[in-house]
Sequence to fold (371 residues):
Amino acid sequence: MVRQTASIVVFEILGGVVLVTALLIGVLAFRLASGPLELGIFRDDVERALTRARDGRPVLIDTVFLEWSPEDRRVIVTANNLRMLDGQGETSAEAKRAEIVLAASSLFFGEVDVLALDLESGWVDVAQISSTEWAVAGDPLPPIPSGELPQSSREWLARANEVLPVVLTALEETGERLSFERLNFKDIDLKLRGQDGANLLTVSDTTGQLGRTEDGFIFSVGGSGLGQGLPKGMAVDLKTSGAGERMAIEFALVEWPLAALAERLGTNPAGVSGLMSDINIALELSRETGVEQVVIRADAGAGKAPFGATSLEVDDLGLIATYAALADTLALDIISTRAGPLSGGVVATIKDALLVTEDVRSFDLKSPKLR
Fold:
């Protein structure tokens, strides 16, 4: 009898707790429906949590609010005018608005831990510290091996095999130190500065994310307004996997002449003009073997394309170039509705494409759709 009475008491207590909780949630929802609720007493705690996540580099915010999000239909914590300082106390990033996800388990014990951060409308400083060191929003990146700018495709491959494994290691170290589950941003300007403080490049209205996955790390960024002579827009997607043993990188360039890409890769762009293109470059590599595959896709408009010792007027040009590094073979798939007197497609496979220094190379050529 006593045991039954005790059970009833326990259930009554639990029922009361649930009822009070539901009532508080209802009151809170009703209050938030009329506007944000300022949480001034938590501002210092949120600042300390964000500062702790940046290894002690300060984060300052003006105000913290509790809001109801009609889009997500949930209560969110927001901050206005968030500023990140570098090691010298200078502002290195700003966001007019930040949405903050706090760990509920930590709040239960009276602590504030940030799980995710969404930044909106602002700018981030990307500064060159030395020939091998850069800092993003005042947070230093691992050093990049120094070297001369590659002048040929072979040199680009060697440089990639030198730098990208270092980047892979740095990303894994960053993922291990990252206390956030994710960091998203939109409408953010990336300002690239040289060692002398001069502005090198501004990527406008960028959108991206940074965070951890089940077996690696993910980073993506895309923006526009790169400047004269550069692509109209760009995007970078980077993902590690296999506990830091593999990495995939993809670059997308919008409205950039194909001749400009050929020049950067060290190939001869003589006779090439026009060919405004949307270009996609994808690389796959492993820590053990380095670069394994490179795929370049380009959809180009009208212009002149090389053909033997001369060049042809083309209405459009589609190109898929696939380089298999371990076999050192390059597969080309080229198609055009009109290239001089021709139309259709050509498929070619070039052996010993980059690693052999001789000028003579064997290749297979097929043109089943050429007219």
